[in-house]
Design brief:
With 259 residues, this protein is α+β, with helices and mostly antiparallel strands. The protein is 29% helix and 23% strand.
């Protein structure tokens, strides 16, 4: 994997936005692979396709690319709010590649967030454009990736270091079970994942997760058995090898950002 862009492709373009898009799309096509099945090269959809940019011809996973210069930030600018909400609630919502590059036109961070981690909660509505704007009243959105559980942030490149492909595939595929769950059931799993992330230490206790009981009760006011649901989700995360059960109410996070 070559982390530098092919700058020769910038010839003939004047817009920085067009240049960035051309270089990054070429980089993905020539350097990336499918995080699901490991297929070495991805395929590009026709231009201006409304749903996705790339697809894997082997396993049919689809991907949309978001790019930005500089370091990885907590929010990513996206398009129309209503369109985004419709997409993540549909059956053909793609996975999202996020690519951050340096001023030297080198990939700094390249990660994928599997589509099962996209929920309306992470889509932040922006203010409508002013009456004087060309598209007056148009409402855009931001993707708040800090609301996504760490398990859902699968790095292929992190801080300009290439992550081992087997680790990428393992992390991507171990959460595919979420696609089969109802919105409510998936919501519980994702919420407990986020609670685990909020615990600072790698090893944590059941009592530490119980401290989020009030927060979860606010989201699920009709559930009178919050602690039972917490234990249920922890058991599921253990069974899926997302966390490790150490013993006596003690768990351990499983990390994947090995380089």
């Amino acid at each position: 994997m070559n982390l530098y862009f092919n700058i020769n492709l910038a010839e003939g373009y004047k817009s920085n936005t067009q240049i960035a898009r051309r270089l990054t799309e070429d980089w993905v096509l020539n350097n990336s692979y499918c995080p699901s099945c490991g297929e070495i090269s991805l395929n590009e959809f026709e231009n201006n396709r409304p749903v996705a940019d790339f697809y894997c011809k082997k396993c049919n996973e689809e991907f949309e690319l978001k790019i930005k210069g500089g370091k990885l930030s907590s929010t990513i600018t996206d398009g129309a709010y209503n369109t985004m909400i419709e997409r993540i609630n549909s059956n053909n919502n793609p996975n999202f590649f996020f690519l951050k590059y340096t001023k030297e036109l080198k990939v700094n961070d390249f990660l994928i967030i599997p589509k099962q981690f996209f929920t309306p909660e992470i889509i932040i509505k922006r203010k409508p454009l002013s009456e004087n704007a060309k598209r007056a009243g148009w409402i855009g959105c931001n993707i708040d990736i800090k609301r996504i559980a760490d398990t859902g942030k699968v790095f292929l490149v992190k801080n300009s270091k290439i992550i081992e492909q087997d680790l990428v595939k393992e992390q991507f595929n171990k959460t595919l079970f979420l696609r089969e769950k109802s919105d409510n059931a998936k919501g519980w799993v994702l919420d407990v994942m986020n609670c685990v992330d909020l615990v600072i230490n790698e090893t944590f206790t059941l009592d530490e997760i119980y401290k989020f009981e009030k927060k979860l009760k606010l989201k699920y006011p009709n559930n009178n058995h919050i602690k039972d649901k917490i234990r249920q989700q922890l058991q599921l995360l253990r069974d899926k090898n997302i966390i490790e059960f150490v013993g006596r109410g003690i768990y351990k996070k499983i990390k994947y950002e090995k380089i």
